[in-house]
Amino acid sequence: MKQSLEQLREEFRYEKTNSCVQCGYCLPVCPTYITMGKETHSPRGRINLVKMVGEGKITDLSVLEEPLDLCLGCRACETACPTGVEYGSILEAARAALVRRKKFSAPVRLLRKAMFQKVFPNRKIMKFTGNAFWLYEKSGLQKAGRTSGAMKRLPNHLGDFEAIMPQAVSPAERKKTPNRVKAKGEKKYTVAFFTGCIMDAMFQRINRLSVQLLAEAGCEVIVVPKQTCCGALHSHSGEMEETKRLAKQNITAFEQAGVDFIVNNAGGCGAMLYEYGHLLEDDKEWADRAAAFSAKSRDISQVLVSCGGLSNLHTYPGELVTYQRSCHMTNVQKVTSEPLDLLNSVSGIRFIEMEQADMCCGSAGIYNIINYDASMDILDRKMKDTKATGASVIITTNPGCLLQMKLGIEREKLSESVRAMHLIEYLAEAAGIS
């Protein structure tokens, strides 16, 4: 029993729970505690559950599954914590420990293996997925599915998400994407662009615009060919060994580029890249290499601001704009001012900060698919604050947040007067780049 308890303490990072003094400062910033009102669904409640496992007071680990599954992983609690509790590390370890012990049904086990090991990490499959969605649009299948009502009968409310997906990029346009783009004018930096998996498949236009804007700002941009998925979805799902494998593949690929920065345009991906140093800190062979990689990782807004911003940006005079902050950009990468600096450089804009701007929108990777009702409760609160600004444009910096806010616009029946855009889309529009 003693050996087993020691093993549990190590797996669940029990020693890190001792930093939590149960003060409750995390409660007002936790979206699930606010919407569910349960102590077990708060940061300190979840930490206490892990602590009880480490002390042998909880032996049925299934008790932890729902509280941990319903955590968004937004990490807002870390910014509010006065004692510096490493909640993200505790959550990551606990989820991985539960997954190692969980007996999934054969279909679920096979699906997880296929998605995490074969689909997300494979750039060819992800591009095929994007091309297939384009064919689905152009063939008339999309129109037929929507008009017939078939989309509404899809499981897990997938029809709701299908209705807000961005317009797909054609295979021919994908092939035009260059692997290297020279800087416009004086070169300020040489950067490697991280394409991501979902971003490359479904938001390829934002990736293309990102490369163009970086070049406009004075960056020579390299698209590293052997890069892969960042591993964020794997980490959130407790698949830590696969997360580490993907991290090592990316580190190896980007090391050879010899660039000033590794640039991403998705808050969730950026947070994962930023934490490679933490992820591999106990691996003697990879720790220094991972730390060096993380030190070069930047959100695109940081690099654009470092270059001096973009010139000749303008929009309709008086256009009301608000900004939905990416939790992982704010709470993990600590990137807060740069997106606002870029927005405020657009002439004609009227920026209005929403109440509780740092509160999660409820997207959290695929949380809004697997925990739809909980996610919608959080989204409805977010939309209340968003509507109060009167903004006609909602800016985001993460693909999940972008889809979630589009869904919120549809739920509030505001599609005729409000649009949600990625920051890069808005800046490109303001610069006259299509």
From TrEMBL:
<dbReference type="InterPro" id="IPR012257">
    <property type="entry name" value="Glc_ox_4Fe-4S"/>
</dbReference>
<dbReference type="InterPro" id="IPR017900">
    <property type="entry name" value="4Fe4S_Fe_S_CS"/>
</dbReference>
<keyword id="KW-0411">Iron-sulfur</keyword>
<feature type="domain" description="4Fe-4S ferredoxin-type">
    <location>
        <begin position="61"/>
        <end position="85"/>
    </location>
</feature>
<keyword id="KW-0004">4Fe-4S</keyword>
<dbReference type="GO" id="GO:0019154">
    <property type="term" value="F:glycolate dehydrogenase activity"/>
</dbReference>
<keyword id="KW-0408">Iron</keyword>
<dbReference type="Pfam" id="PF13183">
    <property type="entry name" value="Fer4_8"/>
</dbReference>
<keyword id="KW-0677">Repeat</keyword>
<keyword id="KW-0813">Transport</keyword>
<comment type="function">
    <text>Component of a complex that catalyzes the oxidation of glycolate to glyoxylate.</text>
</comment>
<dbReference type="GO" id="GO:0051539">
    <property type="term" value="F:4 iron, 4 sulfur cluster binding"/>
</dbReference>
<dbReference type="InterPro" id="IPR009051">
    <property type="entry name" value="Helical_ferredxn"/>
</dbReference>
<dbReference type="InterPro" id="IPR004017">
    <property type="entry name" value="Cys_rich_dom"/>
</dbReference>
<protein>
    <recommendedName>
        <fullName>Glycolate oxidase iron-sulfur subunit</fullName>
        <ecNumber>1.1.99.14</ecNumber>
    </recommendedName>
</protein>
<dbReference type="GO" id="GO:0046872">
    <property type="term" value="F:metal ion binding"/>
</dbReference>
<keyword id="KW-0249">Electron transport</keyword>
<feature type="domain" description="4Fe-4S ferredoxin-type">
    <location>
        <begin position="10"/>
        <end position="39"/>
    </location>
</feature>
<dbReference type="InterPro" id="IPR017896">
    <property type="entry name" value="4Fe4S_Fe-S-bd"/>
</dbReference>
<dbReference type="Pfam" id="PF02754">
    <property type="entry name" value="CCG"/>
</dbReference>
<keyword id="KW-0479">Metal-binding</keyword>
